[in-house]
Specification:
This protein has one helix and three strands; from the N terminus they run βββα. By secondary structure, it is mainly beta. The protein has a domain of 27 residues. The structure holds FE2/S2 (inorganic) cluster. FE2/S2 (inorganic) cluster binds next to helix 1.
């Protein structure tokens, strides 16, 4: 079976961006960020203590994206 490697990004309402598939994550200086899972949640509320990944802080802060 050939696995579809096309990455996808889903914006979760009031939450992170879910990135699925093979992508390369880097810091602003170009340093690679280790990705241990094929699906990662990227913080977009700015409150995570493990940026760029979501740690669930958006829930307690009642972060709202305005998405449906
Ligand atoms: S989106 Fe989840 S901690 Fe920021």
């Amino acid at each position: 079976m050939i696995e579809d490697e096309t990455p996808t990004i889903v914006a979760c309402p009031d939450g992170p961006l879910l990135v699925r598939g093979r992508v390369e994550l880097t810091r602003p200086d170009g340093t690679p960020i280790e990705q241990r899972r094929r699906t990662v949640a990227l913080c977009r509320c700015g409150l995570s203590m493990i940026k760029p990944f979501c740690d669930g802080s958006h829930k307690s802060s009642h972060f709202r994206t305005g998405d449906e």
